[in-house]
Amino acid sequence: MSTEPLVEARGLRKYFPIRSGLFGRAKAWVRAVEDVSLAIQPGETLGLVGESGCGKSTLGRLLLRLIEPSEGDVLFEGRSLLGLAPRELRALRRHMQIVFQDPYGSLNPRMRVKTIVGEGLVVHGIGTRRDRLDRVRELLGLVGLTPEAEERYPHEFSGGQRQRIGIARALAVGARFIVADEPVSALDVSIQAQILNLLQDLRQRLGLTMLFVSHDLRIIEHVSDHVAVMYLGRIVESGTREQIYTGARHPYTRALLAAVPIPDPRNRAERTERRAMLTGDLPSPIDPPSGCAFHPRCPYAEDACRRVVPPLTAGRGGHAVACHVFPAEE
Amino acid sequence: MALLEVRELETVFALNGRHVHAVDHVSFAIEAGRVLGLVGESGCGKSMTALSLMRLVPSPGRVAGGRVLLDGRDLLALPEREMRSVRGAGLAMIFQEPMTALNPVFTVGSQIAEALRLHRRMGRSEAWERATALLDEVGIPEAARRAHDYPHQLSGGMRQRVMIAIAISCEPRVLIADEPTTALDVTIQAEILELLRALRERHGMALLLITHDLGVVAEQADEVAIMYAGRIVEQAPVTALFDRPLHPYTQALLRSMPGVTGRRARLEAVPGTVPDLLHLPSGCAFRDRCPLAVEECAARVPPLEEKAAQHRAACIRV
């Protein structure tokens, strides 16, 4: 753990303005990401899990500086992304890429596959025309598509195949860090496994470092070395996969894990009984609750939870929890 | 006799001058108070089966054969006028995306009251009172106040509760829930599934639960039917299906899910793509993705046969 992280976030915040009228001033702010710090070691996959609107996709985009943070910094190999000149940032982008959720909306329907996959090579001025075509073919092979795919258009492919094209594009310029934003959520169950296996293989072969963003706890468990759980813009618990899946401390993490339907019909009555049912909806990130944002839904909330935001504090083995009632174990 | 019995249901679509079977000789039965989980991937015909039961198949599709017996009465033979009263009091349906099923310009209370006035001939104030009672029953806090809200003012989970309130307003015998929690977060999903369970027990409704999520089925269903390319390929009581899945497709689905059989380095992926009804292989539709396929599988469509007690599968290799 003494190695330098490949990617690091320090005190990241992102507030989006809500404006009224065309040129209106900001009426209110959506606090999508609120004081997030994290580090991803080289070759590791960090699973970022949370429910809709918790800020996990925004955080993924902040790490690539696809959107500008309101506060805080992102470091790639120790270099601040915010301090870079546009040219330097563009050069660095070769190493950091994103795979999107929607394999339909994220590929230009008017471009042939070879143009889509090779676009990054052109932008970064890599190789000759001939080299680029060779590289595209190599990439298509790498993601399990046949060479004939290069002349075809996105609509000629199924969802799973399109996701392979999106992955080939992300890898084209030699990315070392990939943000995979719900990469299998739009796919059928039987196809999801193909793409998850492909990402695992590529990760091993190419030594990729990944931020894997998903709402699906089963998938996060499968792909992650470390896991961070987000709720309303903040990381409320983080640790190794084992720490989170067998020793979760935060009541929100435990409720999330308990809510996952288990494909095993035995003992389901017991399971339902044990399931500490959460009540109420996710609060709005425009007007988050005071103190711990989870307190209105938390069965263990105490007075302090309503007043003071619990800091994310690391305990034994790096397992970090942001909770007044169930702090990390020393 | 079962409350709802579907026999050899066939729904076809005319596409490019060809007839495509979206629902292909589907048969099942549900007893009062029981849950049948109908499972499959996109395009397998599970939603079209539900719409066929309701007689709401969109053009150019039509129900081409079979029987849908509710308490012994064949719904497919009813005149449309009578079918209209069956929808609501006989069969009611909730959908994946409640926003598209609710009218954005009316308050949720008035939409429930409207259903009650139409179907149950209630007066205006009686219907409003009943509407708020229903909102309360489906777990909407401060129901009397929220009844004045428009759909966009409610969260996704609350909108699904409103849809459920509308669906149960006429006290249906059978509730059809088509991916009722797919658009919802996992903690909200657990709440909605719990609500459906409570309502079913209280009202003795049968539930046809349509889903792609085997986890949801394992938690909720008594019986399970697995669909592939318009046909039921396996059908069994829930424990038998998860303990001893027989059809290679069911086995593949279970093995391809992360976190089912403990953590593994690799998932067992099902090769190929989800079938396109226009280009199905001859014989068994799964054979081009099946690890057990032999030449004989191409010869004819395997019949759904009893392979063990109450456990049926459509495969010549098991």
Mind telling me the CATH class of the domain at 7-95 and 176-247 in chain A?
A: Alpha Beta
The CATH superfamily label of the domain at 7-95 and 176-247 in chain A reads P-loop containing nucleotide triphosphate hydrolases
What's the count of strands of chain B?
A: 12
Helix content of chain A: 25-40%
Shape of chain B: globular
Low-pLDDT residue intervals, each spanning 5 or more residues of chain B: none
CATH C-level category of the domain at 4-221 in chain B: Alpha Beta
Structural class of chain B: alpha/beta
Order of secondary-structure elements of chain B: EEEHEEHEHHHHHEHEHEEHHEE
Specify Rg of chain B, calculated over alpha carbons: 20 Å
3D structure, described in words:
- The complex is a heterodimer of chains A (330) and B (318).
- Chain A has helices at residues 56-63, 86-93, 113-123, 129-142, 159-171, 189-206, 217-223, 241-247, 251-259, 268-274, 303-307; strands at 7-19, 26-40, 45-49, 71-76, 79-80, 96-99, 177-181, 209-214, 226-231, 234-240, 313-314, 320-321.
- Chain A has 330 residues and is an alpha/beta fold.
- In chain A, helix 3 packs parallel to helix 5 (159-171), helix 4 crosses helix 5 and helix 5 (159-171) runs parallel beside helix 6.
- Chain A is globular.
- Chain A starts with 6 loop residues before the first strand and ends in a 9-residue tail after the last strand.
- Chain B has a domain at 4-221: 3-Layer(aba) Sandwich (Rossmann fold).
- In chain B, the strands form 2 sheets. In chain B, strands 6-7-8-3-9-10-12-11 form an 8-stranded mixed β-sheet, with helices on both faces. In chain B, strands 2-1-4-5 form a 4-stranded antiparallel β-sheet.
- The A-B interface holds A 51-52, 158, 160-161, 188-194, 196-197, 200, 215, 217-219, 221-223, 255-256, 258-266, 268, 271-272, 275, 277-279, 281-282 and B 41-42, 155, 157-158, 185-191, 193-194, 212-219, 221, 238-239, 242, 252-254, 256-260, 263, 265-271, 273-274, 289.
